[in-house]
Design goal:
Length: 386
Amino acid sequence: MKYLDEYRDSEVAKKVVGEMRRIQTRPWVLMEVCGGQTHSIVKNGIDHLIPEGVELVHGPGCPVCVTPLEMIDKAHAIARSQNVIFCSFGDMLRVPGSDGDLFTIKSLGGDVRIVYSPLDCLKIARANPAKQVVFFAIGFETTAPANAMLAWRAREEQVNNLSLLVSHVLVPPALEAILQSPDNRVQGFLGPGHVCAVMGYSEYDPISARYHVPIVVTGFEPLDILQGTLMTIQQLELGRAVVENQYSRVLNREGNLPAQKLVNQVFAVRDRKWRGIGTIPMSGYHLRDEFASHDAEKLFDVAEIATLEPEICISGQILRGIKKPHDCPAFGTLCSPQHPLGATMVSAEGACAAYYAYGRHLKPQGADALHQILAGTAPLANGLRT
């Protein structure tokens, strides 16, 4: 299949890694921003395949993972309310709040429904005029246009029993927060391909220049990530720091201009709290005042709910690239997909979920695993074609 098999060719992968080894002269720490990239890296053993002196750390690009616990609790409070149909994408249903998850609420009689498109909520609201239908609108810039369209159509079509609980976050302010941190280790970024397909990548130029850090917008297949890693190392070795586009078959510098226009008409940028990180200034979308009648946080009076994160969960440090899932004492024991302590263990893009799913809580690893990956026989390399 075009753009699939050709980006999983193990022979090409070996050549790209060989070029990394040829040019690398010192250790480098790179962060892949997107959770989808993290899963591809762990699934294919890319972090073991690249040169030993190049470390990949995992960033805050999983939207479920960075949704703060208090926002989860707000969602659960609304879902427990009478005469409410609470709609969400499926990856939010197992995310634990302070008291259970959305599956628990559903099992106790709450009307919680999985939708596959935000616009499904319009049909549900029209079919249930006596109910309040609430959509849990989370995500980065990638999902913002579809969620903005839901709010726009609800207002234009006067579907007055439909509202959105919005928890949208933005990538560029998060990168700046990471780079400003006194314990930052990141020297280069593999930028978020899907986000940039919507927003373009010109907004990363000031960040690259201000902090003198390379940012290479990268795709999600194994060879995408290997090429993006090579391009970042090439910049670092030459002392360069610019924004480059590895994912050119999908995105361009300007992004999707009609989608951006719609997002800006529906959402305003304000401060936003991130799980395990805290409040990042001007880092999230909120509904504009003209959409207040469709703002669930105001309609259900949950704005004042505030919750502390559990101390045992180190997801905040994982999302900032300071630690990795196997550094957590609860990983694979007290915290598992069956009994998660945090969103990073149950999200489809969570780093902890990736480590658990692909056996990173099991031994041995290291040289034996690397040998198997190069041979194309390791379970971790099952995405690479030989």
